[in-house]
Amino acid sequence: MNNREIAETFETVADMLAIRGDQIHRIIAYRRAAENIRELNRDLNAIMAEGNLTSIPGIGATLAEKIEEMLTNNRLAFYDRLAEQIPPKLVEMLKVEGLGPKRVKQIYDSLGITDLDQLSKAAQEGGLRQLPGMGAKSEARIIAGVEALVRHGDSRTPLGVAWPVANLIVEQLRDLAGVERVDVAGSLRRMRESIGDIDILVAADDAEPIMEFFCAMENVETVLGRGPTKSSVNLINGLQVDLRVLPAARWGTSLSYFTGSKSHNVRLRELAIKQGLSLNEYSFTPQDGQADILCATEEAVYETLGLPYIPPPMREDKGEIEAALKGELPTLVQMEDIRSDLHMHSTWSDGKMTIKEMAEAASRRGLSHIVIADHSASLGIANGLTIERLRDQAAEIRALDREFGPNFRILHGTEMEIRANGELDFPDEILAALDFVIASLHVGLRQPREQIMERLLGAVNNPHVDMIAHPTGRLIPDRPGADVEMEVLIQRAADTGTILEVNANPQRLDLQAKDVRRAIEIGAKLAINTDAHHADHFQFIHFGVATAQRGWATAEDVVNTWSADKLMAFVENKS
DNA sequence: TAGTAGTGACTAACATTTGCCCACAAATG
Question: What predicted TM-score, i.e. pTM, was given to this entire model?
Answer without folding.
Answer: 0.94
